[in-house]
# Entry
Amino acid sequence: MYRRLRTARRITQLVFLAAFVLLFALATYPPKTRLPVDLFLRADPLIAISASVSLRKLIFPLVWYALPVVVLSLLLGRVYCGWICPMGTTIDICERALGIRGKRPAETPGWSRVKFYVLIAMIVTMVLPAAHRSTKEWGITDTVGLSAVYLMDPIALLTRTFTWVGLPAVQWAVGMTSDTLTSWSESDLVLEHPVLDRALYPVQAALSTVARQPPPYFRLGLLTFAVFVGIVALGRYANRFWCRNLCPLGALLGVLGKASPVRLAVSEKCTRCMRCVNECKVGAISEDPHKYRGPECVGCCSCLAVCPENAISLTTGHEDTGREDQVRVERRRVLEAIGCGIAAVVLPKVDWGTRRTEATEKVLKVSSARLIRPPGALAEDEFVTACVCCGECMKACPTNTLQPAFGEGGLEAVGTPIVVPRIGPCTQACNQCGEVCPTNAIASFSVEEKDHLYLGTALIDRSACIAWAADRQCLMCDEACSYDAISQETIDGVERPVVNEAICVGCGVCEFVCPVEPMGAIRVYSSGDRRHWTREEQREMRQDAEQERARGSPYPSV
Amino acid sequence: MSKDAITRRDFMRRALGAGLAACGLAELGGFGATDGASAEAAAGSTIVVASRKDPAGLVRAAVGALGGMGKFVKRGARVLVKPNIGWARRPEQAATTNPEVVAEIVRLCKQAGAREVKVMDHAVDRPDSLILKMTGIESAATKAGARVRMASSPALYEKVKLRGGKVLKSADVLRDMRRADAVINVPIAKVHNATRLTLGCKNLMGTVLDRGAWHRSDLEQCIADFVAEFPPDLVILDAIRILLTNGPKGPGRTEDKGLVVAGTDSVAVDAYAATLFGQRAERIQHLKLAHAMGAGEIDLERIRIRNV
# Structure
């Protein structure tokens, strides 16, 4: 009977991983589904807590989605880790496929506490005031915390590994296959063949609907891949090293699971053959097989399945069964974790990236000239706080313009999305990043609103521009501008482009199409970023600019 | 070496033609057209202007008046249809070719016995998937039996030397255009910020990989060079709804003209289409240059216009 339970667990794992991959694949524009494609991120209690605590308000969609996982953990312990978590399943599959067998099957008590210290450090970063907030909530608090969970939250980590590594790899392969088939289909053999030509086309057509051209790529791909390889490779020390020792979500669910009434009980039939100890995925069973550590057990049911004597059983209630619920953290290490949390808040502030322009009283704008955030993004400090760097927006972005930041936003913003216009424009008809963002760091917006969500401003480098510097006819920027923000001025018989800064929202299509290589003579800079304004204020600005233009003033005041 | 010499002579001859054209002699009665091909075009340039029908009817009438699709598309031919699918805009915004026009052309090609009809364009905008969906061309043309594909992959292009090009000496050209038995250019008539108008000749820019190079050198001359080297077999210009302001992408003011202009002479079709905007073709630099290079007739007096 318990063997079936293990089989059921394995099937459940595969189903949830398949659902994760499917939802990931469905995060596209135009959208193919009404399902919340960021479901796994929304249902992650750590992300919900982090976003709510660090932003000092309950982020409701997150709270509702995460609640079932919390209830599940209160009832059954860490079954999320054993049955659902796509990261855990991915590690299981990788370990099995690569034949990785940990040296230490049994408990590694010293290491297993690390995840609790990680959790503590992260809670410290959420609670401490890390930055001012642009709008006051409740009139009491005007600070936001720092969200460090993005570093180690398993769902965010896996999603960004999928986006930054998996997606480009798959798309590259699809693109190469598609190109190869195209060259075959143009060969005389196929062209003249009555069947081959017709047979090849449906395959080509199918591939070209999947293939994105050019294939997407991301700037932090290799680093992310290295982290993922490291996580899997740690399994050589102990299987699922990540889950048992490092994962802060596992730590959180383990603490919640102390309340669970479901327990394992070992009867007198036990012969101490130690098979359960060896089979336990996370080393929860101690040297004495009659005892196990509750906050470690992920409910994988392997022990139940392998016991040759059927000595292990599931029971409910509060009788003493050998489950140890206490998490033995060391005071010194806890203090160190708190110190790390404080350092994580303070240290980025000494980084060059935090040098900011002051916009209004206590409201800080952006640091780097090329820090262009997606439309709908919260004001910079709140944005960095809310973003968990899951990469879902970058997956959904159809033009590949959304890229993880390096240093544009400072140390605390590495990996957060920025618009890189030279790679692709923020296309006018798309609003998908706002739809898929699990924490609403990119608040949802409509396509109609895009003409007044100011990301930045395009500036023309007249010393490089073909029309300005070389007196040639070009105006590609004007041609491609979706918002009619570029006008022409005829000087010495040559038409030269001029940007209307009150109308330009910084979508970057001009920079994308500019024929001046390599970096374009028209470039989007963060000077026009107006995220710290309300949408109403931005809409009024757009209307005023339109009116002023209708009156015939070529250079409206910004 | 001998090949080189011919090229140079050819070049000189065409340069002379362009020079005379620039002197304004062309306007005095076609003296600028010293090139043989141009004289030929001048003698037989016929265009058809179809009006007062639904889009599919306009196409049928225009192609019928030119002698039917069978004249251009032989049985078993491979056809490339090149509409304007350049922007993520809806059909009613008149920035891209009317999907019904494209679909009807595909149907006519199929009826003429075409083995394969490809509908391709190299868009300026991104992303391809969105452009295909918004313009409505993908669904309409696919239903009509075409193979629709956006030509974004560099693997679809091949480097071609333009022997007669004055500025454009070589280009990465869509391989499908080079290999097709018939190329049908299906532009939409729009104003253009840089070239005043974008009609048939300019629409051919969507068959090259690196358009930036044209802008960096001499846009108008490159367009002329290209159309002189790769004249399409048939031009069917969509002037059902034309874009009058903020072209070529729009959105701008549009006007419903309800016309389809067709012909085999790219410059002649464009020259007529220019009048729809109240412009003289001689003021459209690339048309003037293309005419000078012998790509077609620009003088409306010398173009036979059939209204159907």
